[in-house]
Amino acid sequence: MQKIIPYSIEKEFVEFEKQYVSIFQNKHRSVDEILHHLITTHGKCLRPMLVLLSAGMSGKINRNTYLIATIIELLHISSLVHDDVIDNASYRRNQPTLNALWSNKISVLTGDYLISKCLLVLCEINDPLLFNYFGDLVNHMSEGELIQLSKINDYSLTEDEYYLIIQAKTADLFGACLYLGAYSSGASQEDLTCLECIGKEIGTAFQIQDDLKDYNINLKDKDFAKDIKERIVTLPLIHAMQKMDEEQKQTLIQLYKTEDKSDDLICQIINTVKQQDGILFAHEVIRQKVKHALQLLERCKNSTYKDSLREIIQQLSPEKQ
User: Fold this and answer.
1) What is the rounded distance in angstroms from the CA atom of residue 217 to the CA atom of residue 196?
2) How many Å apart are CA 193 and CA 187, to the nearest integer?
3) How far apart are CA 272 and CA 248, in angstroms?
4) Structural domain boundaries, residue 290
5) Does residue 1 fall inside a structural domain?
6) How many domains does the chain have?
7) Is residue 94 pLDDT above 90, yes or no?
8) What is the average pLDDT score of the chain?
9) Confidence band for 1, pLDDT divided at 50, 70 and 90
10) How buried is 303 (Cβ within 10 angstroms: 0-12 exposed, 13-18 middle, 19+ buried)?
């Protein structure tokens, strides 16, 4: 997947990638081959970019900034590796997953290996605050995933419960990107709090946008209707059911409960949710999250880093899709 690097951190991102790639080098050929697959398919690196931009907005990008960006991306990749095992996914970003190429056992151990690398990098920084922060972060991410799994096929899930799940499993990590980037360059507590909030708004919008992929009939990649197939309840479905009478609701639930869904059945579900404005509502929530993040960003002092962050936030708006 092509990375679009903000002009304000082009040189700094090259330095980050150099250090990040070095983490994946291993003297054992079999391990190195597995890690090479991950490093060549790891996506846009949005989260490390946010770390670098936040640090640049708040002071000077430094050695600790690069190390924090590395930890953040390692955590993200390890969570994806584990998610692919849980979901029994064969593709991610149109590339074969680790578990499809090797096995579930190899994938679980690889995810654990990446987390161990996070601990080693944390030890290099040697900051007690970071140990506590990352400990809480990983705990929340795991809780979010566990709660979501427990809510599969649970059609009583409320909007508030949905937001709590996506905050824990996605938004908190985005909040950490902006908080810790700024922390590495000596930002004030007021700025740290503001940037963390911006990050969480970005992360919430990002996750809802990701959930909406299920409802894009024109989407051709392997992620199409993944949540619908797995009977995971997300915001468009929740909102649609709220607008239905009991008979309509039960009809939709029975369609959603079907284990082996045909393409026609999936399209029927999508069209039903669309008719009840579930998709429209999710887009509106994204707009509100983007609007709030941009409002908070205006509290930060002007810089090229701020301009770049603003552009990233604006790209999340449905009008930009």
Assistant:
1) 34
2) 10
3) 10
4) 8-320
5) no
6) 1
7) no
8) 90
9) very low
10) middle
